[in-house]
Amino acid sequence: MKIKKLFIKGYGKFINQEIEFKEGFNVIYGNNEAGKTTLQSFIKNSLFSFESKNKDKEGRLPDLKKYKPWEGEEYSGSIEIQLDNNKQYRIEKNFKDKETTIFNSNLEDVTSSFSYNKREGVLFGESLFKMNRNTFENTAFIKQSNTKVFKNDKQEIFDKIINLQETGEEDLSVTKAIKALSKAKTELGNKTTKGRIYNATIEKLEREKLKLNKANENRERMLEKQRKQKQLKGEINEILSDITNIKKEIAKEEKNNELEQINIKRQRLMRKLEILTSYDKNINDINEKIYNYEKQIKTNKQLEMVEGNTIVEKIKQVTLLKSDTEELEQKDINEYQIKINKRNKNSLMYLYAGIGVGILSILLGIFISKYVFIATFIAFLIIGSSFFVRPKKEEIANIQIMEQEKTEITKKRKELLQFILDIGYICNDNVLDIEKTLNRIYTDKNNMYTISKDIEIESNRKKDYVKLKKDELSELQYTSLLEVKEKIKEYEQQLKDNNYIKVSDKTDYNKILEETIVIKNQKQIEEAEIKTLLREFWMNDEELANLTEEIAKYEEVLVEIENEKTALEYAIDFIEKAAKDIKLDIIPKINKKMGDVLSKITANKYNNLITGKDSQLNIEYDNLIRNIWQFSDGTIDQMYLALRIATTEIFSSYEKLPILIDEAFAFYDSDRMNNSFKLLYEISKEKQVIFFTCKKDELQKISELKEVNVIKL
Amino acid sequence: MNKITFFHCGDIHFDVPFTTLSSKLGLPKKRRQDIMEAFSKLIDLVKKEQPDFLFIAGDLYEQEYSNLKTVNWINEKFCEIEDTKVILIAGNHDTETKNSFYKTLNWNDNVYFIGKDKEKITFDEYNLDIYGIGFSLGQGQKMKLNDIECETNKNNVLLFHGDVDIDIGNRDYNALTSVALESKGFDYIGVSHNHKYRNDFGSRKIIYNAGSLEALGFDEEGEHGFIKGSITNKKLTTQFISLGYSKYKNIEIDIEDIETDVELIKQLKEILTNKQGLYRVVLKGKKDIDTIIDIKKIEKILKEEVEFIRFKDKTQIKANNNIENMQGGLKKAFISKITKQMEEDEANIAILKQALIYGLQAIEDENINITIGDEQ
């Protein structure tokens, strides 16, 4: 493609400016501010669509605003081009209204045959050259270097060449890009770094996780305590009811003790009563004794009056009488009498017996003969004996004497008896009794004396007992046994009313109460401690939830960091892949092209540009591989230019675009400049070259070349 | 006539952490307050309508997070509705451990807990048996269900915490089948665990999942509330009572035709109508590589408009002429490669987009701008 003509109605400082270009080498010369940049902008904006962004990356105003003329209405122009296939177009642009009109060589409006979109408008250059504005700018234009540093050395070119070899663009370096991405990745941080956002986040995360663990453990402990508290409360309640029961038992016990006391009193009183009763009994006994004694004494009033001597006399008498009586009894009349009578009786008996036998024998003899005589004999014997048995006369006389004795004895006896009766004793009328009685009387008389002594003694005894009883009663503060008995009854009633039961095996409830209270206190303390702990714990509202949320936040951040790292890794990966593709695919083509370009001035000596490791550049020159540093500055400049142009041609394969050079050699020395111009001139034989400069010497140099179109602004 | 009225709810999750919302200070706490408010509303309705029973089928509180104060407050609320009997079972968030609040708290007299060792509670005055199957792993729930034999002359209600008709192939996970449940002779089966209201289990229309009382996540849009029901002479009627709409909203927006941040903000402002809302915005569509929207900036601006907003970037790069018309060097190759990858690897689109941005920044020797969260 060649640019044939420009016509600017209004654009930047240009008004109604026409510029004609020719094939080959064109030079546009003008001072700074003469409008070179304006022209470049016009060309770009004429061929390509309008910019739509507000500001470009470097913060510069879009051209559309920048070049709007201050004065006048017109903001438009046209450009005429000729394609490689000789088709010609005239593009008319109204920048104010954002309109594009395209005419073909026949001046027919062919705008509609080009793509269009609302935002960008008619896509002329995009359609024809298959590239966008930026690409055009980067390929067709060779500009001053972007670095502001005035470098005049090889390194810059070198870098440009390396970049071209890596990326196809002189400003873009794969190595730099990857380095920057790696650095960004490291800056995010990883396990081995310190102080990066990754590390800070991990630290915070670990810290919060630790807190959460602790908090969870603590919570578990506290929940356990909560359960324990409930348990304790239950136990305490049980104990409290136990205590109530124990206290009841204690009260019962106390009551029982009271009753016990009463019982003891009762028992004591009963003992006392026993004693008193025994005293009373004794007193009564004594009274009876005394009574009896007195009775005896009383009974024997008569005896009192009788002298003892008399009694002794009478005893003597009775003793005599007794012996007499005995004698008499030995000769007992009665007995004699009885004997006699008996004899009489016996003799009579024999008599009768004999008679009887005799009769019998007679009778028998009558019947039984022999024995009659024997029997009769016997009978006569018996009758005979009866006579022998009859009492004698002496004996009968004895009896009369005896009778007389007996009468005397009887009289004496009766005298004694009367004596006894007079004293008031009872006695039988016989001598033994009388003797006995008299002895008794005598004893009694003695006794009387003893008895009064005894009565005295007994009285004294009685006095003692009475005193004891009195003392006892007064000690008890009662006046009578009856009172004591009543009191005992009272006590018994009390005990009965209160169901007193004697307890044999006493439980020490007080001790148990003490122990239970100790346990209760322990539990209450424990419960209070737990309560305090729990109260503090439950105050920390939402602690666990907050920690969980914090942790989630940090984990989110970590995920974000990971994602960013992954993105950076992808970027690196894809850049490397892309670079590889380019190396394999495009770079060889570029290098070949470069060789072609260079061969125009160097007669085929350059064969290949090889990029080694670590951005080593070697060139196959003259069939030898040499390091690029070995070449002179000028040669290297040429290589750079050739490379640059080769790149353009590879990337704009649809059309051979013109090359627009803007102050690219501003800092070259004359040699370098010469060499560069040489190459450019050669190139211009095949491509349109438009060279912008403000340098007079450059202008001069170029003007010396043949067929150069010079345009002065 | 024998009539039993009840409210059935579950999945209240008092004191639960809100990790998704943790990036906004104070919001999780507010949400926990929302739970308390929803519950208070429920209690007010109980006071007003005086159902015989309030069934809470598990996940009432969080065993790991709940404060005693909260549980005491719940109990106090139960005290306020003394005429209604409250029936509780354990969920998977408030399981019946040794130290569970169900055991250690002195619940009010009208509160009944059906634990592991209990099969049912009988209320003679209603001729009613209430069975409870709390949450547990292993085959426990299945076995407990098997062992149940309902008395047919009584009203029978089952409260269950778990899934119905779900097969995740893990034999240790109890899901009960609607067939098994319906075969037992229950008049009402109140389920909780799933946070979405369901009334479509089985064929007899007696199985209902109450859903969460208050929406708790972005996957819980729509209305939340509880089930009001009655069993009259063995016949069941139910009604879903809503306590309000979920604050969570998922929005998908196609930004293909949106050119600028400003435009997007304007459009979003029209959609984000609820100032109290919690929004998750997914951006979709294909965009040119040079018109990448600054999502973080937009997020920052819109954070002021609503309670919570979180963006998810699912936009794709338009593989368009712009790439074709690029200079055929590294940049072009790089961009083509990544955009191709983005078409094949939808899951990683967001990361690949960032890779593209960073790659270009690196290639063009610009500063690589990485922002993590709200910091640089």
Spell the H/E element sequence of chain B. Answer: EHEHEHEEEHEEEHEEEEEHEEHEEHHH
How widely separated are the two ends of chain A? Answer: 24 Å
- Count of extended strands of chain B: 18
Global morphology of chain B: elongated
CATH superfamily of the largest domain in chain B: Metallo-dependent phosphatases
Number of domains of chain B: 2
List the uncertain runs of chain A.
none
Helix segment count of chain A? 20
Assign the structural class of chain A, choosing from mainly alpha, mainly beta, alpha/beta, alpha+beta, or little secondary structure.
alpha/beta
| CATH topology heading of the largest domain in chain B | Purple Acid Phosphatase, chain A, domain 2
Percent of residues in helices of chain A comes to 55-70%
Strand content of chain A: 5-15%
The amount of beta strand of chain B, in percent, is 15-25%
Explained architecture:
Chain A is an alpha/beta fold. Chain A is built from 20 helices and 15 strands. Chain A has a 5-stranded antiparallel beta sheet, covered by helices on one side. In chain A, a hairpin with a 3-residue loop joins strand 7 (116-117) and strand 8 (121-122). The longest helix of chain A has 103 residues, at 197-299. Chain B is α/β, with parallel strands linked by helices and 376 residues long. Chain B folds into 2 domains: 3-245, Metallo-dependent phosphatases (Purple Acid Phosphatase, chain A, domain 2, 4-Layer Sandwich); 248-363, no CATH class. Chain B is built from 10 helices and 18 strands. Chain B has helices spanning 27-49, 68-80, 101-104, 140-147, 178-182, 261-271, 295-302, 321-324, 330-344, 349-363, and strands at 3-9, 53-56, 85-88, 111-113, 120-123, 128-133, 155-161, 163-164, 175-176, 188-192, 207-209, 223-232, 235-245, 248-254, 278-284, 286-287, 308-313, 316-317. A 6-stranded mixed beta sheet of chain B has the order 4-3-2-1-12-13. In chain B, strands 5-6-7-10-11 form a 5-stranded mixed beta sheet. The relative contact order of chain B is 0.10. The model of chain B has no long low-confidence stretch (mean pLDDT 89). The chains are: A alpha/beta (713), B alpha/beta (376). Chains A and B meet through helix 4, helix 6, helix 7, helix 16 and helix 18 of A and helix 1, helix 8, helix 9 and helix 10 of B.
